[in-house]
Amino acid sequence: MAFFVGVSIKFLGEPGDLAFTISCVHEKAYVPIDHVLPMLVASLFSILGGGSLGPEAPLVAICAALGGYVSRNIFHVRNRNVVRKHTLMGMAGALAAFFGCPLGGSLFALE
Which of 6, 35, 38, 52 is the most buried (most CB within 10 A)? Predict the structure, then answer.
């Protein structure tokens, strides 16, 4: 499965990591949507292959990108602080749904 992770990164691009996601939220207030497909495919092959990392970080990055995308393109919000809040809400929602504790997801996203 590691071969497929390498092939997906070669052809789809670098998916980024959690540090990249956090820096995008701090600098641009959103995560670019073009990182969703590489993150989804690389994490899928990694998890299927028994990788030691769990699905939490890709889930947070994908939901952050989707939250920022919905804020900017569907609701047409241009205020950076509001887009950042929607991105953080996507991150918090992902963690709350994954762990089953809404307050913990919210506190982790604000961290």
Answer: 35
Shortest CA distance to 27 belongs to which of 68, 74, 56, 60?
A: 68
Q: Which residue has the tokens 């691009």?
A: 13
Q: For 7-21, how does the pLDDT look when each residue is reduced to its tens digit (9 = 90+)?
A: 998 999 888 887 888
What is each CA distance from 16 to 38, 75, 103, 104, in whole angstroms?
9, 26, 27, 24
SS3 16: coil
d(CA 72, CA 29): 10
Q: Name the packing angle between helices 18-27 and 56-69 (round to 10°).
A: 30
How many residues does the structure list for the chain? Answer: 111
Sign of CA dihedral 95, 102, 84, 37: positive
Q: Write out pLDDT tens, residues 46-66.
A: 888 888 777 888 898 999 999
Cβ-contact 57, 33 below 8 angstroms = no
